[in-house]
Amino acid sequence: LTAHGASDRSQQEGYNLSVPTGAERPRFRRPRILRSLTLLTAVIGLTAVGVGCGGGSGDDADQKIVIYSGREEEIVAPLLTQFTETTGIEVDVRYGKSSELAAQIAEEGANAPADVFFSQDAGALGSVSDQLAAIPQASLDRVEAGFRDPAGKWVGTSGRVRVVAFNPQKYTAEELPDDVLEYAKPEYAKHLGIAPTNASFQAFVTAMRMKHGDATTKKFLQDLKANGAKTFEGNRPIVEAIADGDVDLGLVNHYYLALVKAERPDATVENKFLAAGDPGALVNVAGVGILASGKNTDGAQKFVEFLLSDDGQKFYGTEAEENEYPLVAGIPPQEGLPPLESLTGEAYALGDLGKEEKATLQLITEAGLTS
Amino acid sequence: MRGRVGAGRRPPALVVIPAVAAVLLLLVPPVYLVIRSGFGDAWAVLGETETWRTVARTMWLVVGVSVGALVVGGSMAWLVARTDIPLRRVWAVAAVIPLAMPSFVAALALAGATGATGFLSRLSEALGFGRIERMEGYWGATLAIVMSTFPYVYLLTLAALRRIDPSQEEAARSLGRGPVGAFIVASLPQIRRGLAGGALLAGLYAISDFGAVSLMRYTTVTRAIFVRYESGFDRRPAAVLGLLLIAMTIIFLFIEARARGSVHVRSGPGARREPRRIALGRLRVPALIWTSLITAAFVVTPLGVMIYWIARGASNGTLDGMPWSAAITSVALAGSAALLTTLAALPVGVLAHRYRRPWTQGLERSGYAANALPGIVVGLALVFLGARYMPWLYQTFPLLVLAYLIRFFAEALSGVDTALASVNPRTEEAARSLGRSPVRVLGEVTLPQMRPGLVAAVMLVFLSVIKELPATALLLPTGARTLATEVWRKTTVGSYGAAALPALALVIVSLPFIAVAVREHVTEREDALPSAND
After folding, report:
1. B215 touches chain A (CB under 8 A)
2. Up-side HSE of residue B516: CA atoms within 13 Å toward CB?
3. What is the pTM (predicted TM-score) of this model?
4. Helix/strand/coil (H, E, C) string of B157-191?
C-alpha cells in the first residue's frame, strides 16, 4: 500500500546498520511460492485465452449482430428478444450513452466492430454518418421524411417530445407558459431542473438556436444560470427530484414520467406539452444506422427492417415502458399522449442537430452550465 | 551495506527484459495523447478561461480531499493504535470497510441520503432541524471521495504508528511534555511519511476520479476530458486535456515528494517495544462521539441507503435478479489483473533494489510516474490503438487486463517495494555464496520472504481494479458486464434503486480481500509482517 517504497528502503538500510536483533528472524521456506506463481500464471493464461475466444464474435457471424445501443437495456431488451425470436439472429449488445458510443465508433475508425448503432437521438447518428452505410429505401420509406436522414444514412424508429415536467401541487398545466423562453425568468428558473450535459437537452438548445438565433439562446442559457436553475446529470434524475420535492419544474423528455411512475406510482409529477413548433416541444427521434465496417450487413438490415415493421412499432404503442411515439403511420401511441401531429408545428432538421452540437456545447459551457 | 548489493554483478536478462518491457508499455497512453492532439489548433483549448477554471476546481478538490482524508483517517488511526478508546476493534473494522466502496457508490449513497426523500433528511426533519439539501457540487464530491479514500490514510498511518520508536516519546515526556504534546513533538515526525503517503493516494484518487465528480456535477479536468470526448466531432481537445492532466499529476507527485520530509530511524540496539497507549480520560466521550460520527457517516449511511433502496425495489417489484455473472466477471478480471500487474512490477522492483544503477532507478521512477495515467486516458489510448492496429485484441478481456496493468502498475510497484524492503539481503548473499544462481536465489530465498507483502499488494490492486470504471466501460467486451459498469449504467439512467443491488454486491465481494490485505499489511501478529517491525 505504501506509496514510498523507495524511501522505505532507505529506512530499512538504517535498521540494517544496527546489530541484528532477536526480532530479525528471516525464515527460509521451500520455494512453494515459485510453483504457485507458475501455476497461477498458467491458469490466468488459459482463462484469458478462453474468455478471449468467447468474447470474440467469430463463431457464427451470420446468425449474430453486434449492436452498440444508446438505448437503455431496461427499455429495449424485450424488443431485442422479440427480434431474435422472429429472425433467429442473436444479438451482442454494448450499452452506453449514445454520445459515448458515437465517440467510441469515431475513435475506432475503419475497424469499428459494431454492425448497428441504435441511438437515443438523431444527433449522435449524424455525428458518425461518415461511417454509416445506406439504409435500404424500403425501410426509409416507412417513416415521414422529417424523421430520417435526407442522405439515407439513418432512420428514426421512435419519437420523443421535449416537455416541461412539473409538480401538480405547485402548478397547473394551464398556468405554465407555452413558450420555453419564459422558463428562464427568475420565478420559474429558480425551481427548474435542467440536464446541460444530456444529449436531449443539447438537441433542444440547438433547435432553439435554429429558431431564435444564437444571441437569444445565449441569453436564455445565461438567465437559467443566473436565476438559479439546478443542473442534473440526466432527465430521469430531474423527474425524480420533482417527485422528491427538490425542484418543481424540469426540462425533460416526455417518457421519463412513465418510467418514474412505473417505480413510484404515487409520484407527484405531470407533463406540460408546450406550443407546437416551440423548441421546448422539439420532437426528436431515436434511430438506427448500419455501420459500413460491420461484418454482418445482412443481419443489420434485417434488424432495421424489424424495428420499422408493424410488430416492432407496436412495441412502442403498447408494451414499451418508455412510452415513445411509434413513427410508422397507422400505429397509435400509448394512452394519454396527445397525437404526434399536434406537436410537430415546425420541422427541425434533425440530422443537423448533431453537426451543430459543438457550437451548442460551446454556448452551454460559456454560460457556465457545465461546471 | 545495502547500497552495494549486486553492485559488481550484471542483472540477469530474465529480470531485465520483462522490466524494460513493462515500463515501455506504460508509455503507450502518453504517446497516444501526443499523437492524437495533432499539434494543431486543438491546443487552443489551453487558452480558454474555462479550462483554467477547471484546473482550479480540480486543485481545490485535491486539497479538500487530502485534508479531509488526513483528518478522518489520521485521527482514526491514532485513536485505534495509540489510545485506550473503548471498542477499538469496531472502529478498526469500520475504518477499512470503505475500501470496498468506489467513489461513485459513495456519491450515490450521499445523494440518496440527503435531499427531500433522503432518510437523513427525514431524520433531521423529524428532529426539527429541517431538510438537508441534496449533496452536490464541491462539498458533495469532496465528501464522497474522502469517504472512499480515508482508509488509505488510516492504513498507512496505522502501519507507521506501529513501527514508531517509543523511546523518543518517553524522552520528550521526561523533559516535561504531556502525553499529547510528547506525541506531537516526538512521534508525529516519525509518522509524517505515512500521513503524506496517504494524502498522496487520496489526492491522486481525486485527480483521476470520474464517477463521483460526475454524479456530484463538479467538473474537474478528468470529467472535462470525458465531456469533450463524447461531444462528437472534435476529440483532439480531449487529448490535449489528457496531457494537461498528466502534467498536473506529475507536478502533484513532485510537490508531495518534497513535502515528505526526512526519515527518522531507530538506531539503538535491543528489541523494539510496544509504545504505551495514552489514557484518554475525560476526552474519552468526545473521542467516542468522533469515531461514532465517522462510522455513521462513512459506513452505516452508505450501506443503509443501499439496503433501503433494495428493500424499496423488492416491495414494488422493480428489483432485478442478483447480478451473478457480473460478479463473476468482476472477480475474475480483478483477480487476473492484480496477479499479472504485481508480477509485472516485480522485476522492476528487484532491479531497483538489488542492482542499483542510475538506469534501474530511472526505470523504477518511470514506474511510479504511471500513477499519472487516469483510467479514462488509458482507456482511450487502448481503444484507439486496439481498434485501429490490433482489431483481433480489441474488446477482449486480455486487452482490458492490459489496461488495468498500465493503470495500476504504480500501485503494484509500491507494494513490491515494501515487500522487497522487508527482505534481508544477507540471506540472499549467503545463498549466492553457496552456489545458487541469481534467478534461483530470487525464487528460493527472496520471493518466499516477500510473500506477505506481495499478498497485500495483490489484494490492494484487486480492490482498485474491481472499482475501476472509465477504462472498463470503454474496453469491456461487448455483451459482458462487471459490477462497476452495472452500477454506473443504472445510475446514469437515474435508476438508483436498481443500482443498489450491484453496488452492495461490489462491497460484499470485496470484503474478504480487504480482510486479507489488512491482515497482511498491518497485522497484530507482528512476526508475520517483517516490514512492520525491525
Report:
1. yes
2. 17
3. 0.80
4. HHHHHHCCCHHHHHHHHHCCCCHHHHHHHHHHHHH
